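In this supplementary section we document a worked example of the pipeline. Step one takes a protein sequence of length 401 as its only input; no multiple sequence alignment statistics are reported here. Step two produces a three-dimensional model, which step three serialises into structure tokens for compact storage. The input and output of this example are shown verbatim.
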Amino acid sequence: MVSKNRKIFFFSLSVLVVFALFTVSIVLQKSGAKKDDMSVDNAQEIYMSDYDQFWKLLRKEFPLYDYYNAEGMADELYYKYKNTVLNSNMDDVAFENILRDICRSFENNCHLDVLSKDMYLKYINGLLFESEVFPVQTKEILYSHDLNEMYSDNADEKNDTVKDLDDNIIFTYYEETETLVIKIRSFDHIYEDADAYKISNAKEKYKSVKNIVIDVTGNTGGSTSYWVNNIVKPFGGHYEYISEEIIVDNETNKRAYPDYFSDSFAIEPVYMFTKRFEKKVIIDSPITEWSEKKKWVLIDTACISASDEFASFCQKSDWAYLLGYTTRGNGIGETPLLFKLDNTGIIISISGISGYNKDGTLNCLYGTFPDYPSIKGETPLETYKRIQKEDCDEVHSRTGR
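The serialised model returned by step three reads:
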């Protein structure tokens, strides 16, 4: 009797388990279907909301919006890609690509771009190593809990951006012209300490050189502190100049850069919502025997951000002659601010500050021009070797220095 009851019990229990599993399966299927249906129904609304938020950011934060829209270019882009968002099966990747295409249409000027995973990790590393000073807004976004999944696992992958520290800087000595060429591939802060040690050793090894060539061709930037502490200061001297810059006059920049809106800066309207101000740039270090050596900097079209900033400094302070090709610009100003789209969690970078070149042109539009341009097909290093054979008076007449 007990055995029979036990069988009945287990049979009943099995039926209940099967029924429960079946019920749960049905509920999950319905739940999944409901989620899918909701995703399909609301995808357009979600992506269009972020799309409109992106364009509001451009109109409010992008210094060159009115410049590009003078003939309706921005409006055309808005409606062109709006139709794509509305009439396509969107996912985050497709939406991200649309935003990137729009940023490229604005030539990525003023650092306008979708923040990549690699750049996100560089920002995180900048915070961890305290190599950059970020406004509170930027820190809040970097550590936001609802970022797009492309930025996930940053804690585990933060060292993935660290390359071989032996590859970043190369020294080559040319005996015939008594020239030391220092090739620097990146100004990323991760290289700063290791490269500082190497530069110090090179100064001891090559004391007799007459010419110092800093080759930053192909260098797409990094940290200001790299070139200040590793290039300018080690060779000594006092350098200062006035930097003329423009800033978008809005609450975002007033919170991020309150000093630029204080009475100590002579800020004045330029056009629309952009204002102009001046600030003094000073780099000072003890004068040494290296201070008087002739310096040359090789640049090309890949130079942007911090490497363009270094080129601009060289030209405005007379620290070195620039040889090669016009840079991509975007070196004058501050580290770009970050903005997060509400639904997708995609981060947009925009710099609300730009500046003028020595000749009065806008740096973000025209880049930094070389003092001595390369001939078509000639590398900047070949340009240097060529002008070493020319009369120094001719170099002076071309550059005015």
